[in-house]
Amino acid sequence: MSRHLPIAYPSSDGAPLKRLAITEIMVGPSRHKEISAYSVSALLKQKGYEAVAVSVSPIPFQAT
To answer: Does the pTM of the predicted model rise above 0.70?
Structure first.
C-alpha cells in the first residue's frame, strides 16, 4: 500500500508555487533502492528542496 500526492512544480514562466513541507522521504523496498534514493535526491535538489533527508527501507525486496 502506498500514498501518492500530486506535486506541482513552478511553471515555465517562473511563477513560484507554494512548496510542500517535505522533511524526509524513505525509498523501498525495491530491487535497486540505493539507485532510486540517489534519483529522488537529485530530483529534490533540482526542484529546490535542499534539506530533505532521503533514506532507504531496511526491509528487503522479495521477488515472488
So the answer is: no
